[in-house]
Amino acid sequence: MASHGGILGLVFGLWLFARRNGIDPLQLLDAAAAVGPLGIALGRIANIINGELWGRPTTVRWAVIFPRAPLIQGINVPRHPRQLYACLIEGLFVP
Question: pLDDT tens digit string along 37-85?
Fold first, then answer.
């Protein structure tokens, strides 16, 4: 839900800025949308720094051990770094 509030705040702030400076709000929103994927990518990097959104247990070489992930049979096992996958797919390589 935090992202939804951020998006609403961004749209309201851009609309207010456009109105005060005599800019077409739709053109300003189009320009802001162009950098949206970069914001998503940075958010996913923040997720990995915070140890959030861990993936499934795995044995691949690039697996990561997340300290706060649920234990599997009492052991903290390596997991897929799905935040990095999402950073690439949702943030950098947007079709």
Answer: 888 888 889 988 988 888 999 999 999 999 989 999 999 999 999 988 9
Residue ranges making up the domain that contains 24: 1-34
Q: Are residues 29 and 42 in the same domain?
A: no
The CA distance from 53 to 73, in Å, is 20
Same domain, 29 and 50: no
> Are 54 and 40 contained in the same domain?
yes
